[in-house]
Structure to design on (1386 residues):
């Protein structure tokens, strides 16, 4: 474990409250009493009776000295650990007069031991203790258990330092003292040295080199109280013969007298008068310079008159401008990279890493500004001394320098030339000017600071910067505080600056919007009316993914709004640009004062929705009180009260709770149905009479959404529940975590809740109920046994009145009036961003999914807001070909009404995310305006009909795309509801052969809708069709309900082999569900394919299971009937028999990147789009690049886009004359695929978190991080360029077709996946579970040795998926029904 984690683990058992500055995520997850804080908060907000503060950096410790002193003066007891930065121990003497015990540890193990020692001292006499420790990057384990640690601490009753040392010795077996004498063994026994060094610093570099010199080192371990007596004893009794004693501090602060020397001055008279006393200073010591530094240090003492206060060692830091070459690889300096992108000549005036102090940074800026002014004055005075060209050049420079708003910069080349010319001049005036040589250049000077500018003296400096009005002042403040709740004392710098009215101000977050960030930097760099200030968010996470999630939460919750403010724009309405869609109170008040909020809301439906829900949450609170008052009147007329509370992830627990509540109401109870988190543990729970809780199980035995806050409060509380009658029923899966050691996760939330309620005194009505998905009737088996016991305990009849069956999807469809439902009314309802449950199902048929941002649920609930609802909109794009106009329309909608990105899906179409309800109709309308639609892109209908991309064979591709479009048109729903709901304001739009939504008639008699093919209840489940041409299979033709494999003769498709019954979705551990690869049932001629697809759909419609949606896919119907029977009935519908299958060979299911030319001479370029996400990042500005390419194609009338089913984009049909321009754009926007490994190019993922409601684990956001680690190992094995198909999904529904991959990771819970092996490289064989519930380390640990074996043992041309089967690593899945056979670990 890391040093920081080990320190947190020790602190967690020694203190009731632990505050940790930017702790490891694992520490937060592992220890309930560890609270993460920013470095500014770590001292300011510590007010507990006793607490431990971990990980404060020594530089921040110095800034907080006044606060620490005040807390010590108030007799607060705490242990503070301070991490020594850059081996600079000057921080230790700085704390000498605080009145705290000061300890110093030299390595990781000492830091653990001394944290225990510090806690003992604080416990003994109540004094605060500060531990200064050296940071260590090594991973190590504690040498004692936390149980032993807790026992030792609990049994300690001493009060002195020696008592504490003795207890530490009992625990660790190590002997420590206030002073450490080195060398510590062997020849130390001689006790005779030439010199003695009393040292305050890091002894480790010195200790191993002492043998080269006759010197003893006394290392200070306890600095306060200073061990004067112990030092005297060492110098006068244990050591003798030395001729000099040196007091040496490792410090960057040089003082006239060493603090260490002053501490020991009292005992100097005890030392022989012949012994020289010297005080010195050392800087950075390492293995390269320690010998030389010691030699110089000791040599000085041998002089007859040694020089006092000399400094030895290497400088801690080099005081020079930041080199951008050095920071390019550092993610923490991402904003500095953008600065250089905007202006390659930019100068950072301060070293952000080592000297972020605001006063210093601003002082340096003003110094440079004054020096340039002095230079201008001097040039003006001396100009007449120069003649000719030099006079002209100086005059030109002077005009530039005196111009407050110069039209252009004085370049580095121009200034260098001027300085060179001056250097050749012999005039005295030239020498005077050259003293200011660094100030001729006009490089933009930026101050880079931290959020220390938001506090105290930093804020005063910020005020000074604004007050100066300096037009050359540029300030970038990087806020790394990941706490979404702004703490007391921290000022909002953006609002502060905007209220001044003279500065350009931007609030940016790189991981939220690269484009907005880049725009802000460009605008700030060009602003010359006053100071330009950028407040940038860069939260610290354990990984890039964590930083991404923290940023998203901050922006989407309104904590960190994105905006740009330019007070000098002519148009008032353009002065403030809000680039995000949520604002909190402070910013809202500013905008209200400026009358800008109304203007902004008119431009943004998202902002309108967020403002409305924010205001309505207040109104709802008022209305709730009225309802409660009215309810109390009704309560007097009803029976005993009962609260039915639930916590549910997928809706099963919520549905069960609702059913139970209805039954309780029919039995005479006054029933309240509520989400568990809506119950207050302190206020509501003790007053309950009857409480029944129904909860599902999430992740590794965790509480699901809607119950986490309640459980955290209940676990920490000590309330009395003696008057509460309670019952608990849990839903779980006993095989979800199949290993014996993981059995504890089964139904863990319900078991924990039952035990906790019982412990707090609740009277349990009956034994705990456990529902198991593995039972014959699922969780209902256990529930049907448990519920009668509940009624019996409550003294009511267990018989239930007749109940209507719960509404199903089939009911929703049947009663929808051909997909209308109440969608139109729901879209008009502005009181919520959601839709009714039935309409949520029906909108899918129109290509629209309601989602919410799962990462914002808890925060929005705390804020009194409904979830952050938004819609996903998916396009029907049969044949996967798009025009530049269509691309530009999607790109524009993503920016204006989406989340500024869009997705290329695994069915080769577009997908928008983040569309709020009010924008839904305009989005669908604008998609249709460019001859695309969304009808049937989701729902129980034929989904987008796809075909292979085939860039090198134009003629065959056209035949495939033609077939895809006519099949799509033939199977398209005929309801006019789509047009009625979304398109009434859109006129006629010419459509292609793929057809479009059926229009309602205007005027005349009303038309009664009908669905002659699909029927009023449509299909039991979705139906998918794909077409491919061997040897390519980029559509994964075997994964579809109907797959058409083209048979080509003489460059024409003559017909298709027909594959039936492919399908990906499964349910974890449910052996009745499985993925299935399609079965080849024969050949049909080309023109018969649409009819075959139609009759396949009819078979699905008529024979599919409409009672059990988990068994409703066509694959189960085929296996239930048997392939021969199914084929025979299909042939009856067709009126002809299938011909014998034609031979074909498929080689791969991947895309091939780069340029190719087809048989007609047109060029095509396949772009790599990571996981299909079209977005802009610093390293991959692909969205902007493809926008520019689409604009160019539109302007020139050349080219199309093909979207591949592997989530990539092909720029197609480019004539030779336009290739150079396209290549130039590809280079400019970084589309090269050379940097990608074969593994990465063959990978793909689904969307997963944060928007997919079914996701159990990360996929799209995490896969790049996983591949980064795996690629490093492949590089070592020489496999970087070998293609391996790897796919990752967040759940087992299979959107990225993981079941056909050679390697797949299928999400099981957050951070855990089922590892699949054995799929084929060409996509015709389903893989199998190799290991369930693996985390990243376990997955890497399994895959790397297998890849190593493959590298050394494979046959020529043998792919990894085939190798693991031949090598006996895993058995092949020969057909879908046998997917679970030979799987031991599930």
């Amino acid at each position: 474990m890391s040093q920081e984690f080990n320190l947190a683990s020790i602190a967690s058992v020694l203190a009731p409250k632990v505050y940790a500055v930017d702790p490891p995520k694992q520490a937060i997850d592992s220890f309930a009493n560890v609270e993460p804080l920013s470095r500014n908060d770590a001292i300011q907000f510590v007010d507990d009776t006793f607490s431990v503060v971990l990980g404060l950096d020594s530089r921040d410790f110095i800034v907080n000295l006044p606060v620490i002193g005040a807390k010590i003066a108030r007799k607060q007891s705490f242990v503070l650990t301070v991490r020594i930065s850059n081996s600079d121990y000057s921080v230790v003497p700085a704390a000498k007069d605080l009145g705290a015990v000061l300890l110093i540890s030299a390595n990781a193990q000492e830091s653990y031991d001394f944290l225990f020692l510090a806690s003992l001292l604080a416990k003994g006499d109540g004094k605060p203790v500060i531990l200064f420790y050296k940071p260590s990057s090594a991973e190590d384990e504690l040498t004692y258990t936390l149980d032993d640690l807790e026992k030792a601490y609990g049994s300690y009753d001493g009060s002195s330092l020696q008592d504490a040392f003795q207890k530490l010795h009992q625990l660790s077996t190590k002997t420590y003292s206030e002073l450490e004498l080195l060398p510590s063994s062997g020849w130390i026994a001689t006790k005779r040295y030439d010199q003695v060094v009393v040292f305050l610093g890091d002894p480790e570099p010195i200790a191993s080199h002492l043998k080269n010199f006759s010197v003893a080192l006394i290392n200070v371990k306890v600095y306060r109280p200073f061990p004067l007596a112990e030092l005297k004893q060492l110098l006068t009794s244990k050591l003798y013969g030395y001729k000099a004693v040196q007091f040496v501090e490792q410090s960057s602060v040089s003082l006239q007298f060493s603090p260490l020397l002053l501490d020991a001055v009292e005992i100097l008279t005890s030392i022989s008068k012949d012994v020289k006393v010297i005080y010195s200073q050392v800087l950075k010591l390492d293995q390269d310079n320690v010998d030389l530094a010691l030699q110089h240090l000791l040599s000085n003492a041998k002089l007859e008159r040694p020089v006092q206060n000399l400094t030895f060692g290497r400088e801690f830091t080099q005081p020079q401008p930041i080199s951008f070459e050095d920071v390019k690889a550092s993610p923490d300096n991402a904003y500095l990279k953008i600065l250089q992108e905007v202006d390659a000549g930019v100068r950072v005036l301060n070293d952000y890493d080592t000297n972020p102090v605001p006063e210093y940074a601003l002082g340096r800026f003003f110094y440079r500004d004054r020096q340039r002014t002095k230079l201008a004055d001097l040039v003006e005075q001396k100009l007449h001394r120069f003649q000719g060209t030099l006079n002209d050049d100086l005059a030109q420079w002077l005009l530039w320098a005196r111009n407050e708003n110069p039209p252009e910069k004085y370049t580095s080349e121009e200034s260098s030339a001027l300085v060179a010319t001056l250097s050749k001049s012999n005039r005295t005036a030239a020498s005077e000017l050259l003293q200011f040589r660094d100030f001729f250049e006009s490089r933009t000077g930026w101050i880079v600071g931290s959020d220390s500018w938001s506090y105290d003296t930093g804020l005063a400096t910020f005020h000074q910067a604004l007050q100066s009005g300096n037009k050359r002042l540029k300030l970038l403040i990087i806020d790394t505080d990941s706490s979404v709740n702004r703490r007391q004392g921290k000022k909002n710098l953006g609002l502060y600056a905007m209220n001044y009215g003279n500065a350009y101000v931007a609030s940016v977050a790189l991981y939220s919007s690269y484009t907005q960030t880049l725009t802000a930097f460009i605008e700030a760099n060009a602003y010359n009316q006053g100071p330009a200030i950028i407040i940038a968010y860069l939260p610290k996470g354990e990984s890039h993914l964590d930083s991404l999630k923290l940023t998203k939460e901050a922006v989407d919750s309104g904590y960190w709004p994105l905006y740009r403010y330019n007070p000098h724009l002519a148009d008032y309405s353009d002065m403030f640009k809000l680039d995000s869609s949520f604002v909190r109170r402070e910013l809202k008040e500013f905008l209200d004062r400026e009358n800008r909020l109304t203007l902004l809301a008119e431009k943004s439906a998202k902002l309108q929705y967020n403002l409305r829900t924010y205001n309505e949450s207040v109104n709802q609170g008022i209305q709730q009180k009225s309802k409660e008052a009215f309810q109390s009147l009704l309560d007097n007329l009803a029976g005993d009260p009962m609260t039915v509370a639930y916590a549910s992830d997928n809706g099963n627990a919520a549905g069960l709770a609702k059913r139970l509540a209805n039954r309780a109401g029919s039995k005479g109870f006054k029933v309240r149905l509520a989400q568990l988190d809506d119950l207050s543990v302190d206020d509501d729970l003790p007053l309950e009479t009857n409480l029944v809780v129904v909860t599902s199980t999430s992740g590794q035995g965790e509480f699901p959404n809607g119950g986490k806050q309640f459980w955290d409060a209940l676990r920490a509380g000590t309330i009395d529940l003696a008057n509460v009658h309670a019952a608990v029923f849990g839903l779980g899966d006993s095989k979800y975590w199949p290993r014996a050691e993981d059995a504890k996760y089964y139904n863990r939330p319900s078991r924990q809740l039952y035990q906790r309620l019982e412990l707090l005194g609740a009277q349990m009505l009956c034994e705990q109920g456990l529902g198991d998905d593995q039972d014959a009737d699922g969780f209902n088996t256990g529930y049907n046994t448990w519920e009668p016991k509940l009624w019996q305990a409550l003294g009511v009849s267990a018989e239930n009145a007749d109940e209507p069956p719960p509404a199903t999807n089939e009911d929703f469809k049947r009663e929808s009036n051909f997909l209308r439902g109440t969608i139109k009314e729901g879209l008009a309802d502005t009181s919520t961003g959601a839709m009714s449950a039935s309409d949520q199902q029906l909108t899918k048929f129109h290509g629209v999914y309601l989602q919410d941002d799962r990462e914002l649920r808890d925060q929005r609930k705390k804020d009194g807001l409904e979830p952050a609802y938004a819609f996903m909109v998916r396009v029907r794009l049969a044949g996967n070909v798009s025009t530049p106009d269509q691309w530009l329309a999607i790109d524009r909608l993503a920016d204006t009404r989406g989340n500024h990105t869009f997705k290329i899906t695994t069915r080769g179409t577009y997908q928008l995310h983040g569309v709020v309800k009010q924008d839904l109709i305009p989005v669908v309308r604008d998609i249709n305006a460019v001859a695309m639609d969304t009808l049937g892109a989701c729902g129980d209908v034929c989904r987008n009909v796809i075909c292979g991309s085939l860039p090198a064979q134009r003629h065959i591709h056209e035949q495939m795309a033609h077939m895809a479009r006519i099949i799509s048109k033939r199977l398209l729903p005929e309801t006019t509801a789509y047009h009625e709901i979304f398109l009434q304001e859109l006129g006629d739009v010419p459509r292609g052969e793929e057809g479009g939504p059926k229009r309602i008639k205007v005027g005349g008699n009303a038309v009664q809708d009908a669905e002659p093919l699909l029927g009023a209840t449509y299909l039991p489940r979705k139906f998918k069709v794909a077409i491919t041409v061997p040897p390519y299979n980029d559509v994964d033709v075997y994964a579809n309900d109907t797959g058409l494999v083209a048979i080509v003769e003489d460059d024409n498709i003559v017909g298709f082999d027909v594959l039936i019954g492919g399908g990906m979705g499964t349910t974890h551990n449910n052996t009745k569900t499985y993925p299935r690869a399609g079965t080849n049932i024969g050949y049909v001629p080309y023109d018969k394919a649409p009819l075959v697809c139609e009759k396949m759909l009819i078979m699905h419609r008529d024979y599919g299971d409409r009672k059990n949606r988990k068994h409703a896919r066509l694959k189960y119907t085929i296996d239930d009937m048997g392939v021969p029977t199914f084929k025979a009935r299909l042939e009856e519908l067709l009126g002809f028999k299938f011909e014998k299958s034609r031979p074909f060979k498929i080689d791969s299911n991947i895309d091939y990147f780069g340029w190719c030319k087809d048989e007609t001479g047109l060029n095509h370029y396949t772009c790599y789009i990571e996981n299909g996400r079209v977005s802009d990042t610093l390293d991959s500005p692909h969205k902007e690049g493809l926008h520019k390419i689409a604009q160019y194609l539109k302007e020139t009338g050349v080219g199309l886009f093909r979207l591949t089913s592997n989530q990539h984009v092909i720029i197609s049909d480019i004539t030779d004359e336009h290739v150079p321009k396209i290549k130039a754009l590809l280079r400019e926007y970084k589309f090269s695929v050379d940097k990608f490994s074969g593994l990465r190019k063959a990978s793909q993922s689904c969307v997963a978190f944060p928007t997919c409601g079914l996701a159990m684990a990360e996929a799209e956001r995490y896969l790049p991080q996983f591949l980064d680690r795996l690629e490093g190992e492949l590089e070592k094995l020489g496999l970087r360029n070998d293609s391996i198909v790897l796919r990752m999904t967040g759940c087992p529904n299979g959107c990225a077709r993981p079941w056909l991959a050679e390697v797949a990771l299928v999400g099981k819970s957050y951070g855990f996946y089922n590892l699949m092996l054995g799929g084929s490289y060409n996509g015709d064989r389903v893989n199998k579970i190799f290991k369930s519930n693996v985390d990243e380390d376990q997955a890497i640990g399994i895959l790397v040795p297998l890849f190593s074996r493959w590298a050394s043992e494979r046959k020529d041309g043998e792919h990894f998926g085939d190798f693991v089967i031949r090598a006996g690593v895993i058995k092949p899945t020969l057909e879908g029904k046998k997917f679970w056979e030979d799987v031991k670990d599930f």
